[in-house]
Write a structure and sequence with these properties.
The chain has six helices and three strands, in the order ααβααββαα. It is mainly alpha-helical.
Length: 157
């Protein structure tokens, strides 16, 4: 079934499809990059979200910042805790929502992953205008913000 031609929607649809493809390729490449460290892309993402947070946070807050389902992040956080990379701490603001933080081993694993990431990312960026990369990142942030703003709106389709 062919959809009606809409000059604004067509480029957005192409961008969405390329984003889906890129996400799949990034996850596969990330798995290869951090696999030797005993990590997956998903575990690396959660470690990174915890490492980059200004303070320990509950899983629900981490999931919101990552744009993922709380249950998915909870499962990965539990796996990382069992592996000794994360630990749960009491939350003075909420009895049941424990705070998540890195252990020393978790910090070391994250640092090792980032040491692998930096030269890999530099290689990907080689020959691309940094301003173009920043513009692309800005566009993705803007689309993400629009999606977040519309999350609470009713479906109009």
């Amino acid at each position: 079934m062919k959809m009606p031609n809409d000059t604004a929607a067509d480029p957005m649809t192409r961008l969405m499809l390329e984003t889906f493809r890129l996400n799949g390729r990034l996850l596969a490449a990330g798995d290869r990059l951090v696999g030797p460290l005993g990590l997956t892309s998903a575990r690396w993402q959660v470690l990174g979200a915890v490492a980059l947070a200004e303070a320990p946070q509950p899983v629900a807050q981490i999931a919101r910042r990552m744009g993922l389902a709380r249950q998915s992040v909870q499962r990965i956080a539990d796996d990382l805790a069992k592996a000794g990379l994360l630990h749960y701490a009491e939350n003075p603001d909420h009895r049941r929502a424990k705070l998540v933080d890195l252990t020393a081993a978790g910090r070391a694993a994250y640092d090792q992953a980032m040491a692998r990431h930096h030269p890999w990312a530099q290689g990907l960026a080689a020959g691309i205008d940094p301003a173009a990369i920043e513009a692309a990142a800005g566009l993705l942030r803007e689309i993400g913000a629009r999606l977040e703003a519309r999350r609470a709106e009713p479906d109009t389709s």
